[in-house]
Amino acid sequence: MDAKNIRRLRTEAQALKATLHVGKDGVTEEVATELIRQLKKSRLVKVRLRPSSEMDRAEAGRELARASSSTLVEVRGRTAVLSR
After folding, report:
1. DSSP-derived pairing of the beta strands 79-83 and 71-76
2. 1 by DSSP, 3-state: which?
3. Mean pLDDT throughout 77-81?
4. How far apart, in whole angstroms, are the C-alpha atoms of residue 39 and residue 55?
5. Measured between alpha carbons, how far is 84 from 14 in angstroms, rounded to an integer?
6. How is residue 16 annotated by DSSP?
7. CATH of 3-83, one of 3.20.20.80, 3.30.540.10, 3.30.110.60, 3.30.70.2190
8. What are the extents of the domains in the chain?
9. What tens digit of pLDDT does each residue of 29-40 get?
10. What is the DSSP secondary structure assignment for residue 7, as one 8-state letter?
11. What is the pLDDT of residue 53?
12. Is the N or C terminus of the chain more exposed, i.e. has fewer CB atoms within 10 Å?
């Protein structure tokens, strides 16, 4: 994905609300399955990383992208944006 598309997706993501939350258990199979389901429904998903999650935020974003075969658009604070 090129820089122009990533900028466009970041802009679109600002209007989204987080529809998936990663808790203290981190990126589980259930979280990955739900992310895949949401990505099929909508091409852009915002994920909230709860403070109780012990994973590094950037690593959690990469793990979510790997588990769902998606592209990590950005990680900002405790929020990750993924696109299919």
Report:
1. antiparallel
2. coil
3. 93
4. 22
5. 17
6. P
7. 3.30.110.60
8. 3-83
9. 999 999 999 999
10. H
11. 78
12. N
Q: Which amino acid is at 71?
A: T
> Which helix (DSSP H) or strand (DSSP E) does residue 82 occupy?
strand 79-83
Three-state SS across 36-76?
A: HHHHHHCCEEEEEECCCCCCCHHHHHHHHHHHHCCEEEEEE
The CA–CA distances, whole Å, from 80 to 4, 12, 70 equal 19, 13, 12
- The dihedral region occupied by 69, where left means phi > 0, alpha psi between -120 and 50, and beta the remainder, is left
User: 42 near 81, Cβ under 8 Å?
Assistant: no
Radius of gyration of the chain (CA): 12
CB burial readout 32-54, b (16+ within 10 A) else e: bebbbebbeeeebbbbbbeeebe
pTM of this structure: 0.89
Note the pLDDT of residue 7.
93
